[in-house]
Amino acid sequence: MRILLVMGAGGEGGAETFFTQLALALHRAGVETQAVIGPNEQRFSTLRSNGIETLVLPFRQILDFKTKPGLKARIKQYHPDVVLTFMNRASKLCPKGDFLHVARLGGYYKLKNYKNCDHLIGNTKDIVRYLDQAGWPEGRAHHVPNFASVDRDALPVSRAELDTPEDVPLIVSLGRLHENKAFDILLQAAKLENRPYIWIAGEGPLRVELEQMARDLDVAHRVRFLGWRNDRGALLATADFCVFPSRFEPFGSVMIEAWAMKCPLITTRTAGPLEIATADKDALMVPVDDAEAMAVAMTRVIDEKGLAEGLVKAGWDSYEKAYTEEACVQNYIDLFTRLLAEREQVFR
């Protein structure tokens, strides 16, 4: 089986990270894999240094005369069995051809960009339900969850290097600095529960606003904005617990990364966490936009004897059951194998 993975987004985020990790995981599993990506030097270097032939194309929004013919030429040259596209632009620009075109969706996207696809993959059951309800053809939407793409052997980050005392509770929170991730609620909760230090790893349009908010709430001395980080495993290995405060979250890769790193988890009652987690078992779950409830949950993890240990044990069990790299890759291989066989029957 030959698979070509395609993603036009050049930035950093959850989908971009998973694209890279899935390409590497398929390659490690012995699947013949190539990639086509938008400009991103680090992603290109990571893929190429791990033996994945990678083509960079512009994927610009306007006046782009290179991407579509370049992608078509690479497909003709590589002759893949499956082209797996990520996000809108790559899916829209992918030409039709003698291959199975599957797009992977990590959100509730408009289907106009996916009309040329043969099948769609949603990383939650709720996304698959959305696709069915939006009119996508029956039997052509499939559920394959993500895996936790963290280095489980990572050593903890030095607290001293980030001006954080060794004897204080430490929260790590990861995600794009965007309204949907609700870091404003985390900062408000830190005002109410004033013991933890907080490391926020991520970048985005709200950084300046959030830094100012931390100063206004008088919590800036306990908050560290780390920017985009690729050492999420090491950060979670350092944390006493992880807080995932999103107000909108289709999946929630941070959750399964916390479970994989045996880090107690607090999250919100959004679509992804409600589907994946079990409240008060593998995560404490609080209402969206409720800083007071989040602060109470933080206090519970710090003070309630045995709670953190119980969350870690149940979280690890949830991770091992469904979110390991091996399980995810096998799910993709099994799905592609079945769909290719069905396609061959149709064209006989």
TrEMBL record:
- Name-wise, this protein is Glycosyltransferase
**What lineage does the source organism belong to?**
Bacteria, Pseudomonadati, Pseudomonadota, Alphaproteobacteria, Rhodospirillales
Instruction: Give the matching Pfam families.
Output: Glyco_trans_1_4, Glyco_transf_4
Q: Which Gene3D superfamilies does the record cross-reference, listed alphabetically? A: Glycogen Phosphorylase B
Q: Which InterPro entries match?
A: Glyco_trans_4-like_N
Top-level taxon of the source organism: Bacteria
Q: Which residues form the Glycosyltransferase subfamily 4-like N-terminal domain?
A: 13-152
